[in-house]
């Protein structure tokens, strides 16, 4: 990353804008300017934080079988520890925006990474499930806060023409991190046990957090809102290939216009309530499926008699399929719109889950692992691209509120999966578990059929992610 001397930064930060020196719109500067190497490095750092977010978030799924065995407890007794982490994620997601708006996007990312890294490290010292629950709650605060903070940082450093791909690639880093966690766990667990898994897994984000402290700049949009930091913003824009004259005044016309629009109630304004409820249900069902896999898939496979290493590879395959599926579905949506790609992926997720019920676990264990890879491809394709659908459904004034509320409602499904997953595995085994995964994807399909504002086909003459006039009407 390009750097400036301490004296240059100090001088730039000390400059105060003066009246009459002209103004510049930060949105225009970012969207119409070049995509420099410095900006790409910021996006890479944000993506790395999400890779480790997915990595640490899924370590518990690989460790649960050994924890249960060591402490002699049931799956149901461990469910509160799983739920505590998911509750923490929900709170972290909800509070991340408030923290980022008050203290900056930079500190939101760094704080999130350091929190979940430190708490994950501490889990390695836990003497019982109650302690794990408390630490997973704290880790969840950081894990939940990292994704919205890092995607905001990515969006605010990326020109509009590259933003959709950059944000999608950042979101895909969650299953990528989970896949790396599976590979890591398959080598560490048999040799060193679950405690070492958390010691090392927590140390990595702590190291990244220190790197971010030294290198990650503040978001230019955040700086533009604070006149006392306009000198710092001018120095940053210079590093981004956008040199500005001394004393320039900064505005952010698009965002300031958005802030004047109505909030949560607008999601249920005439013409929007049906889509809002349908998208909420889709998020709920998808996150129930995703976190049933993240938390309980290795446990289920181990209960079916598979060796520990092979049981862990099921979640690794699930995440690998998720990375591929999310990218393929995003590409399909840019050409054919969102309706058919999302419905096909929902149907594929349901069909793959029900088809695996016919697989003999003992005789065709690797075919079952492959099946979970296919299932993960379809489910994560839907989950990752639902964010793009939200961005299309809602106009600028309520877009962030619409997406955040859908994700928050979806987190309830994730929390439910902590208890339902344990109960289903105990009472129904693999057959019950697969029935759960298939059923929720059928319900997600039904919800997405109900949505009226799908992203249109490119052939319709309307570019992807462009709204029709009715959708673009301001909601007041």
Short description:
Helices cover 78% and strands 1% of the residues. With 476 residues, it is mainly alpha-helical.
3D structure, described in words:
It is found in: Membrane. It comes from Pseudomonas chlororaphis. This is MFS transporter. It is a multi-pass membrane protein. The chain crosses the membrane at residues 41-65, 77-100, 107-127, 133-153, 165-185, 197-216, 277-297, 309-332, 339-356, 368-394, 406-426, 432-451. This protein is mainly α and 476 residues long. It folds into two domains: 23-257, Growth Hormone, Chain: A; 261-476, MFS general substrate transporter like domains (Growth Hormone, Chain: A). Helices cover 78% and strands 1% of the residues. It has helices spanning 6-14, 26-32, 37-71, 75-103, 105-123, 129-157, 160-192, 194-215, 220-224, 230-239, 253-258, 273-303, 308-336, 339-356, 365-393, 396-450, 469-472; strands at residues 23-25, 249-251. It has a two-stranded parallel sheet with strand order 1-2. α5 runs antiparallel to α6, α7 runs antiparallel to α15 and α15 packs across α16. The radius of gyration is 23 Å and the shape is globular. The two termini are 43 Å apart.
């Amino acid at each position: 990353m390009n750097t400036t001397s301490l004296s240059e930064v100090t001088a730039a930060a000390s400059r105060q804008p003066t009246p009459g020196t002209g103004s510049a719109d930060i949105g225009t500067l970012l969207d119409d300017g070049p995509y420099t190497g410095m900006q790409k490095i910021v996006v890479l750092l944000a993506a790395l934080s999400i890779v480790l977010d997915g990595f640490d978030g899924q370590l518990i799924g690989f460790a649960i079988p050994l924890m249960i065995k060591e402490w002699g407890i049931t799956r149901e007794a461990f469910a509160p520890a799983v739920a505590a982490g998911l509750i923490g994620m929900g709170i972290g997601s909800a509070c991340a925006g408030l923290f980022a708006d008050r203290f900056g996007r930079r500190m939101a990312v760094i704080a999130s990474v350091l929190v979940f890294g430190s708490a994950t490290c501490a889990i390695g010292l836990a003497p019982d499930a109650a302690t794990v629950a408390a630490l997973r709650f704290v880790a969840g605060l950081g894990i939940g806060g990292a994704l919205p903070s890092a995607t905001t940082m990515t969006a605010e450093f990326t020109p509009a023409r590259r933003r959709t791909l950059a944000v999608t690639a950042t979101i895909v880093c969650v299953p990528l991190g989970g896949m790396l966690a599976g590979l890591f766990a398959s080598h560490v667990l048999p040799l060193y046990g679950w405690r070492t898994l958390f010691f090392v897994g927590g140390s990595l984000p702590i190291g990244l957090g220190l790197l971010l402290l030294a290198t990650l700049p503040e978001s230019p949009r955040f700086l533009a809102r604070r006149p006392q930091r306009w000198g710092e913003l001018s120095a940053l824009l210079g590093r981004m290939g956008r040199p500005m004259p001394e004393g320039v005044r900064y505005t952010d016309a698009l965002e300031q216009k958005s802030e004047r629009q109505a909030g949560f109630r607008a999601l249920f304004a005439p013409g929007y309530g049906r889509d809002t409820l349908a998208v909420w249900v889709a998020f709920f069902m998808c996150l129930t499926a995703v976190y049933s896999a993240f938390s309980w898939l290795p446990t289920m496979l181990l209960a079916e008699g598979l060796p520990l290493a092979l049981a862990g590879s099921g979640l690794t395959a699930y995440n690998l399929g998720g990375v591929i599926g999310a990218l393929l579905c995003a590409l399909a949506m840019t050409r054919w719109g969102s309706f058919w790609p999302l419905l096909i992926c929902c149907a594929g997720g349901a069909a793959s889950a029900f088809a695996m019920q016919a697989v003999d676990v003992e005789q065709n264990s690797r075919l079952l692992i492959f099946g979970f890879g296919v299932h993960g491809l379809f489910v994560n394709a839907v989950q990752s691209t639902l964010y793009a659908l939200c961005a299309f459904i809602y106009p600028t004034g309520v877009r962030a509120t619409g997406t955040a509320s859908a994700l928050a409602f979806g987190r309830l499904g994730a929390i439910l999966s902590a208890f339902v997953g344990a109960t289903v595995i105990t009472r129904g085994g693999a057959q019950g578990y697969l029935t759960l995964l298939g059923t929720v994807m059928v319900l997600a399909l039904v919800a997405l059929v109900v949505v009226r504002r799908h992203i249109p086909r490119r052939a319709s003459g309307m570019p992807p992610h462009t709204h029709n006039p009715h959708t673009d009407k301001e909601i007041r």
